Amino acid sequence: MTIREQTEEIERSVLSPFAELSSQSRGRQKPEEQCPMRTVYQRDRDRVIHCKSFRRLKYKTQVFLAPEGDHYRTRLTHTLEVSQIARTIARALRLNEDLTEAIALAHDIGHTPFGHAGERALNAICPGGFTHYMQSLRVVDRLENDGHGLNLTWEVRDGIKNHTTGEQPATYEGKVVRLADRIAYINHDIDDAIRGGVLTQDDLPWDVLYTLGRTHSQRINTLITDTVENSADGELKMSPEVKLAFDKLHAFMFESVYTNPIAKGEEGRAQNLVERLYEYFCRHSESLHEEYKGIIETDSVEIAVCDYIAGMTDRFAVQLYSDLFIPQTWKK
Length: 332
Hints:
Layout: H1 3-14, H2 40-49, H3 52-56, H4 75-92, H5 97-106, H6 115-125, H7 132-147, H8 154-161, H9 172-195, H10 206-212, H11 216-230, H12 240-258, H13 267-283, H14 290-298, H15 301-310, H16 314-325
């Protein structure tokens, strides 16, 4: 037996009946020979970690645009926190940790610069609309690896596509990532909002803190433990008391942070920047990088420009905007 086959045998003997077995994956869009060392989900995880789009997440906004300080979350650190939470839940429920990790690491890989402000801007101007989860799927299917895509398994692709809204993921592991994403961003956004002076600890709802915990680690521990203790027979759920507190915290964050004019004061400028870049490159498609010119031939100029802008980091987009629209003499 190869090492991969030994791992697959261990999965069959150890994992929950509701877990996805590597040996029973629905496969890839393009068939490949199996790796003698790694399972299909281990290979998917490795492909995501080593791709360029994953590395660019470190310079993409999570919630706060251009914060002054090194300790605010970026899209990359958010992704790592989601992965950690999801893997903890998956291990406790005896699910496939490799599949869970692969989905978690890839779930935001197609996110725009400037967080959801960039996403809203592209959604308003791109033909057919734009969502970061469908763009993440497009990145792994089409854009990465010099236009060949990463050729990920069906289960990972399903988890990416359904990690936020709409249909539930088809796998238990995908559902875990979807919940872990919510647990991660609500709690780390509290941390960043307090650091940025948008909230104080005393602003948080006292009844929620009483149920979930006063500190970041206490709340995450409560949510993870409660989920593990109340999930069974392939269903992921929390106790009524904890779910109510979690939903209250989610609503509080939308009212106090995600729509707060202090936290979101720069978003209008960011959206305008994205719109100006989109208009410019739609008129000057010859200025696009070569890899995007090929997309024009198979899709359209507008889609190629959306792909180009969505892949930018915050700082690259700002520098490009400055180069294109701000007179050089004004920069001195």
